[in-house]
């Protein structure tokens, strides 16, 4: 089979990307026309594993009844994420039509309003570095931004200078309005570094919003390759394990073209917000609750936690609040499907993995629903219980404490500690005495359950 030409660049190579965008691209009817150049995130390990395989890897769809194995050929070149020159050259190539990103929520390094966080040392340093480089073209070749967005902006400037034409950027992280967020973040960086680039971004860069739904757990890279070899005879140092379910919803334009992802099951919509909220609040929100609270009851994976009646009640109560904030959907089938997916005992989705960045995740996945419920006069009891479960996880150390909060100061979860934690999530919730009382009441119930 001929190698597809390089038409897509991806930043943030990992299992999530390979189970989603790479899989959809491989399944598109025109897959032979769309190869992916994939750059790693913070680690070289995956580059070292995939390079000898020319980017080829095994996708293992792990259902309760057994595994299905498939070779995915859409990644045609693998590069280290810290090779800034290679990344800049790839994005500047006129053959490239799309840049996709999976850099995690924390990787964007943004303030609450979506602007670049200049109190972040790496971001502040990149702003200074890029401003100097853009002002003096002689410094461009040696520029080494430390942040993902700094590297993206440097690469886009190289594309502008090369006259390589318009490009679509597709962020695939679990963030509400991820396209709008990225568009505003890049515009904010450009305004601080190059007025000329800021104008070009507005004309030549389309940022597409997406919602992706496919559970892809971390795996043991010693045991899984042996399992693939035993089942198929293939020697694969970097397989991916995922669930059979897959969903991808996109909103936006692709000025230089795109794969026929619809033929692989992707959905293009005029308004993505309801779809991303359904996934973010229900699947990811439930995961955030289970990841914080499940380990306090001795659970290590999602499938065990969801079978605990106390954890299940927390999830169902949160979903009841979610459903009232998603009135355009009939959610009965989606809820049933989520429970079936969570209960798949062969997907070892570890709670410790999900619990990373739990404060940011709770802000995005639970707080908006609580505020929406309170705004229309409803008590948001499901959200209050979910936040209570998160607080118990923070106290126990199963979820990391918010920045600036000393774990020792919240050991008793007294009124002061609860207020500090609630304020860390959202000051408006902390100021609502009734909601704070419901959080306190839920903590008392959970502590005795």
Detailed description of the structure:
This protein is an alpha/beta fold and 449 residues long. It has 2 domains: 6-268, Rossmann fold (3-Layer(aba) Sandwich), CATH 3.40.50.720; 273-447, N-(1-d-carboxylethyl)-l-norvaline Dehydrogenase, domain 2. It is built from 20 helices and 12 strands. The strands form 3 sheets. It has a 6-stranded parallel beta sheet with strand order 5-2-1-6-7-8, sandwiched between helices. A 3-stranded mixed beta sheet has the order 4-3-10. Strands 9-11-12 form a 3-stranded mixed beta sheet. Helix 10 crosses helix 15 (358-365). The model has no long low-confidence stretch (mean pLDDT 95).
Major β-sheet profile = 6 strands, parallel
Number of helices: 20
Shape: globular
Number of domains: 2
- Broad structural category: alpha/beta
Euclidean distance between termini CA atoms? 58 Å
How much of the residues is beta strand, in percent? 5-15%
Q: What name does the CATH topology of the largest domain carry?
A: Rossmann fold
CATH superfamily membership of the largest domain: NAD(P)-binding Rossmann-like Domain
Strands, total number: 12
Radius of gyration: 22 Å
Strand order of the largest sheet: 5-2-1-6-7-8
Instruction: List low-pLDDT spans.
Output: none
CATH architecture of the largest domain: 3-Layer(aba) Sandwich
Quickly list its features.
449 residues, N-(1-d-carboxylethyl)-l-norvaline Dehydrogenase, domain 2, six-stranded parallel beta sheet, Rossmann fold, 2 domains, alpha/beta, three-stranded mixed beta sheet
Topology:
Layout: E1 6-13, H1 15-19, H2 21-27, E2 35-40, H3 45-50, E3 57-63, E4 66-72, E5 75-79, H4 84-92, E6 98-101, H5 121-135, H6 148-162, E7 167-171, H7 178-193, H8 195-204, E8 205-207, E9 209-213, H9 223-232, E10 240-242, E11 247-251, E12 267-268, H10 273-293, H11 302-306, H12 309-325, H13 332-342, H14 351-354, H15 358-365, H16 367-375, H17 381-396, H18 415-425, H19 427-431, H20 433-447
Parallel strand pairs: 1-2, 1-6, 2-5, 3-10, 6-7, 7-8, 11-12
Antiparallel strand pairs: 3-4, 9-11
Helix pairs in contact: 4-6, 7-8, 10-12, 10-15, 10-17, 12-16, 12-17, 17-20
Domain Mannitol dehydrogenase N-terminal: 6-262
Protein name: Mannitol dehydrogenase family protein
Catalytic activity: D-mannitol 1-phosphate + NAD(+) = beta-D-fructose 6-phosphate + NADH + H(+)
